[in-house]
Protein 1
Amino acid sequence: MLYTVGEMAKKLNVAPSTLRYYDKEGLLPFIERSDGGMRMFKDEDLELLLIIDCLKKTGMSIKDIKTFMDWAQQGDDTINLRLQMFQEQRKLVEAQISQLQDTLDILKYKCWYYETAKAVGTTSIPRAMKTEDLPEDVRPYKEKYDKMRKHAK
């Protein structure tokens, strides 16, 4: 089955202009055109579009995604290069996830902190509490927060 830019964009949950931009940047050499010049996507194009979308979400530059697409077009001689690229991106995403987990943990602590302050009418109470006096589920977040504050000084 063939899909227009708008139809494929809807499948990917992106703006049609995104697919046009990708095409303009050379990321979509596999796209066919109708007799009238309209871009036409096939079902099998979806897989590559999902990979492009995935790489874009990891923060990879259009230039590097273009390199990947070029390697994919070259075939099996570039398997090692593509594997290495994905391994590097995976490491970057894992580091981002770790940073986001730290951020989430601080937010959890600060939510507890301000919920407690709201309940008692002052921030002086939760601020004065020792770690061992905190609810057990909040302690790891507070410890992480304190550790991060010490490293930042």
Protein 2
Amino acid sequence: MENQTQIFGIRAIIEAIKSGETIDKVFLQKGLHGELFNELESLLNKNAINKSYVPVEKLNRLTKGNHQGAVAQIAPIAFYNIEDLVLNVVESGKTPLFLLLDQINDVRNFGAIIRTAECTGVNGIIIQKKGAAPVNGDTIKTSAGAIFKVPICKVDHIKDAVFYMQASGITVIAATEKTNKTLYQVTFKNPCALIMGSEERGINPSILKVVDEKAKLPLLGEIESLNVSVACGAFLYEALRQRLEV
């Protein structure tokens, strides 16, 4: 698998998208207009590609070339199809353990979560196309290379992934403080998918309404929450502990 590369220039990015290149994120210059720029924006929206509007100075730091107001990051991995991944895991005879990340946008947290997921036997990670942390050099470094070992899927909406998991016989468990039940009172021994939410907003309320179980970490200190990658590690290792029980 090659390291992340960049494409710069509006026309070049348009052609890359049309040719099916795996674009992870596009940085667009604030305040830029024009017919070609509008065409690029339309393509990004149509294909649900993550984009961010930034000052020209940011683009100048990203590349030394003539970026024309647009720089795209090509993902260093190929993303899996969620239907194929779930089917393959179920048919393999393994007890599925999936991880759904609801708009966790910090690349270091994302990388740390991937690393823990690989160590605890997670079969795949599902992220949303919009609002998720990009798969870039920082993600690779923080994951210690685990990103190349754990299948990652991108979906239009996390709720769609929840419904697909449930239809496949997989229990969906949300890590949230909005419950009286702790993670030690929930079973992870059966096929399950764990949802972690962003540190700023947690799990989207509309998603919490459709999950099968909710569980929280007991916190004895005055601080009301843990870093999301630390909390995810606690949940995944509880799942592993239960699955290792004879």
